[in-house]
From TrEMBL:
Name this protein carries in UniProt: Pilus assembly protein TadB
Domain of life: Bacteria
Main location: membrane
Membrane spanning residue stretches: 6-27, 107-126, 132-149, 279-299
Membrane topology: Multi-pass membrane protein
Keywords of the record: Cell membrane, Membrane, Transmembrane, Transmembrane helix
Subcellular location: Cell membrane
Domain Type II secretion system protein GspF: 174-296
Keyword Secreted recorded: no
Length: 309
């Protein structure tokens, strides 16, 4: 083929590619049919109008790999079990997930570990050919490690959230006690504290307030918080508020006492942690500061002795 023919083919391919790109850009910028029609359909509520499926890469990936991930998640659930424990930990971690979604995440983490091990296995087999059975065992172990690592991460999220709740509790309890002592009702004081504060404990109290506003009795809402919370301090606080609402007992003094107890417990925990870390605190002193001090003290003497001889 002559250079003129090659030039014509390259120009034709370039023109076709540019036309495809322009056509795709025009198609993307054109409003979709549901965006033009749904605002004028009055039979659908707002959530149904905004929940129309949008074509995108994420939806395409979910449509292609979703059935496989769901089947794999069901298999992980059959092997591991413990759905009640997972559901309780998801609730305590404040995650908006159900057990099946968590199992899907475990499968994704396992596949990530499997992919890393498989890549290492391919490189190993390429450089050092041999028996592939140990590499296959490593890949399976990496998959299991990824699944268990996601479960361990959930437990860590639970611990982090409960630590944050314990740290926030004295301030929230003091604010609630001040509002009650100022003459407000417990529900009004709770609404004020939720509105003025932020954090994990305020998030739980906002859920309690939402249940109260939907018609659930105050005592039942706080009893549910005490049952679902994994923090003993919050459970005791919820029981106290429930009893105070039911029987009309004074609430401000009890909340002040609970806040003081939590602060004192935090102070004791900090002292205990410092005592446990005392040995680790001595490591830089013994292995870094002390040798440098000894060197600075004896090095001039050694130099002087060597020069005298």
């Amino acid at each position: 083929m002559t250079p003129a023919v090659w030039g014509g083919l390259l120009g034709l391919c370039t023109t076709a590619g540019v036309l495809l790109v322009v056509a795709r850009v025009v198609a993307i910028r054109r409003p979709r049919l549901e965006m033009r029609v749904l605002p004028y359909v009055r039979d659908l509520d707002t959530t149904q109008r905004t929940s129309a499926p949008v074509a995108g890469p994420g939806n395409v990936v979910a449509a292609v790999f979703g059935p496989f991930l769901r089947r794999a998640a069901s298999g992980v659930e059959r092997v591991l079990g413990g759905s009640a424990s997972v559901r309780r930990r998801l609730s305590r971690a404040g995650l908006d997930l159900d057990v099946h979604d968590f199992r899907v995440q475990q499968v994704v983490w396992g596949l990530a570990g499997f992919g890393v091990a498989a890549a290492y296995g391919l490189l190993r087999a390429w450089t050092h050919p041999g028996n592939p059975l140990p590499l296959l065992v490593v890949c399976v172990g990496a998959f299991a490690f990824g699944v268990l690592l996601r479960d361990n991460r959930l437990s860590a999220q639970v611990r982090q959230r409960e630590t944050a709740i314990v740290a926030e509790f004295p301030t929230v309890a003091e604010l609630l006690a001040l509002s009650v002592a100022a003459g407000e009702a417990p529900v009004a004081a709770l609404a004020r504290v939720v509105r003025r504060s932020g954090g994990e404990l305020s998030r739980d109290l906002s859920e309690v307030l939402a249940r109260i506003r939907t018609g659930e009795p105050v005592a039942d809402a706080f009893d549910r918080l005490a049952a679902t919370s994994g923090v003993p301090v919050v459970a005791r606080f919820a029981h106290t508020v429930a009893v105070a609402v039911e029987r009309g007992t004074p609430l401000a003094d009890v909340l002040h006492a609970q806040a003081a107890d939590v602060r004192e417990a935090g102070r004791r925990a900090l002292i205990e942690q410092a005592s446990r870390k005392e040995i680790f605190m001595m490591i830089p002193v013994v292995f870094l500061v002390l040798p440098v001090t000894v060197i600075f003290a004896f090095w001039p003497g050694l130099i002087g002795l060597s020069l005298s001889y």
